[in-house]
Amino acid sequence: MSQSTPTSTRPLLGTRVGVVTSVKRDKTATVVVEFKVQHPKYGKYIKKAQKFQVHDGKNELKEGDRVEIGSCRPLSKTKSHRLVRVVEAAPMAVDAFVSDDVAAGTAPADETSGG
Fold first, then answer.
1. pTM here?
2. Taking the domain 15-104, which CATH number applies?
């Protein structure tokens, strides 16, 4: 008569949350996970970061996405993590809006005087 919690509410072991920094390869993304470590002698907290190669089978990730990754068996020489879920999608870049306006010819004219 033991009650177990559903797997969706319980955090998976070996999961981390990070930000996608590169999606240049097929089915692989680079994710940076930042964390803080306390210095053993002085007690000051130091910010550190670690890069992971993550398997993205559907090529659904884009740069800037906040994702949860989990450990798995080695999939290649450097890839031993899989995508668990996308926590937060990346906001659309401002450059995309500017380039669309310039291409359509609707960008505001530069109002500086040349003198």
1. 0.69
2. 2.40.50.140
